Amino acid sequence: MTLAREIGTGLKVLSARLGARRVPFFVQLMPTERCNLRCRYCYVEFGCRHRPDFPLAAILKVIDGLARLGTRIIMVAGGEPLLYRDIGVIVNAIVDHGIECSVNTNGILVPARIEDIKRADMLSISLDGPPEIHNYYRGEGTYEKALEAVKVARQYGIRVQLQFTLTRDVAESFSHVNKIAERYGCFIGINFLRPQEKTNGTRVKAAEADDEEIELFLLRLIKERPRTLPYPPQLIKYALRWPNGFGHHIIADKEDLNGFKPIPCAAGRFLMAIDNAGDIYPCTKLFYSRPLGNCADGDIIGAWEGLKPVKCEACLDLGCNLINSLLRFKPSAVMGLLHNWRNHPVIRG
Fold first, then answer.
1. What is the pTM of this model?
2. Which residue among 190, 216, 235, 315 is the one 20 to 30 A from 323 at the CA level?
3. Rounded to an integer, what distance in angstroms lies between the CA atom of residue 239 and that of residue 218?
4. All domains in the chain, ordered by first residue
């Protein structure tokens, strides 16, 4: 994303807010839920799900509709999106519509498919820590493949975000990921470990680093302020005030806030997530809950206009809260974004 495009997005957001209009500025699109890994902490067991991929013709119709609705950023995710045969067609369609495109990946297939995704504005590549930590959660040899994906993406001039999940030995693991980020000119997204939604309908609580360890880690981030993080200190402090423990990532009902003052959420108004069945959710944190609507036929415009109301009060996710802060033009979030843009630009050869 160029600075000019960021400014353009800001002006369109401001116009929508002043006009009280709903515009899906930020969309996560999941063409497949197939995955080539079986990560120990996968919150929806993507590798065990077997629903069909989103047909290409319908996806292209959705992308065209999103462009007409005013979408500015599409995050292509999964599952592992690089398993989708026509991932290059999707990336090119998004870019050709003037929409920023990011691709979330475990990195395994990046070297093999780099020509298909080379026009993407950003790759989000998962990296959980040093080899012994990353390989424990994702499989033997996956650390080396993720690191190779980072190298290849940067060689192609693509911005890279390292997705770091808080699992165990979080301070030491982050220090390792931070060194990789500094070495290759990446920035880091921090993800709290989420409860697992099992395919058999059960729900398993997230349990690795305890709340005290995570709290000490967040305090350290506030003190050290790594330049690789896009989050302003206020967002880290917001997470520290989270009332329900770091293993509980959503507050759905107002009465459960217990005095906690949330960052107002724009999900369902300015944000949307679409899975491979065409089901529409306010955001990815609510995947496999009750969908708001469906666009399996490609008619995203009709589906968007008829979406049901969203019921969610607050979430712990730093990325979502950063977007919500940007949508409200919080100065610290805007300055953090500009800082991140300056330090991690797209460099095309």
1. 0.90
2. 216
3. 8
4. 3-343 (3.20.20.70)
